[in-house]
# Entry
Amino acid sequence: MSCLIATSLAVLLGLATFVTSVKDGTEVDQCGYPGLVAVLAPNDAIVCNGILISGTLVVPQICGVGMDEFLKSNDLTLVYGNGTRATIPTGTSGTLTGGLYSYTITNPLGSACNIDATVYNSDSDTLDTSTCEVVGFGSDSLSSKIYDGVVYASTLTKSSSSPCCDVIMNSLTSSQKGVILDSTASFNCLIATGAVCGSGDLGAPVYCNTTSGATVVTGLTSSTPCASSDTFLVHDLTQGATNFKFGY
Ligand SMILES: *[C@@H]1O[C@H](CO)[C@@H](O)[C@H](O)[C@H]1NC(C)=O
Ligand SMILES: *[C@@H]1O[C@H](CO)[C@@H](O)[C@H](O)[C@H]1NC(C)=O
# Structure
């Protein structure tokens, strides 16, 4: 997906002089991913991807902490999948719980391609795990954090349920783990064909289709190790569903 080649990181590491290709990410239509949004800094740098559910923006804790810091002295912008913008005003803040940050958005959603996200409910939904993708706005250029409205998706090849992810957590490298601010938070350990690589991809939701044809969210990207087929962590929104496990 975007950033799939972590241009900025690659450049930092001196690993790449050619930095414009997208690695294993596919450009997709945002209409297929209900509730997908991004939070932008004043220069349109992507602070985080996230989802909107019933007027609430939900992003991982690491983004929320960054947002609250920004909001002490700057407005932020929420950009809906279709490009519509809303201001998140200076002086406001959200709520951090269980590894997630929630912020109430007053501007309603409503158009056909800009509807609320639906979170996977393991009691009533059966996932078609072959359809699971990590989806975000990160781009593949030197300006990899600058919002350009283009959405990329990369197919998941492996998922460990959150109980299994807890078990393998200790064997992960620090870049695979990212920054965990709340040790009670619940994660899935995932692998995609592409890679998530920095703030342009932070918060990128994982979408799967259910066998009945709905598109649901199972988690939000919280680590960005930036190498294809590397393990990354996603804040688990499946309530610890043990059947969200495949590929291992
Ligand atoms: C985008 O979505 C918003 C909120 O649903 C809506 O008000 C706006 O008309 C839409 N814009 C386009 C270009 O579809
Ligand atoms: C998920 O379902 C939607 C709607 O039926 C479909 O357009 C989309 O291609 C499916 N996604 C995948 C990855 O198969």
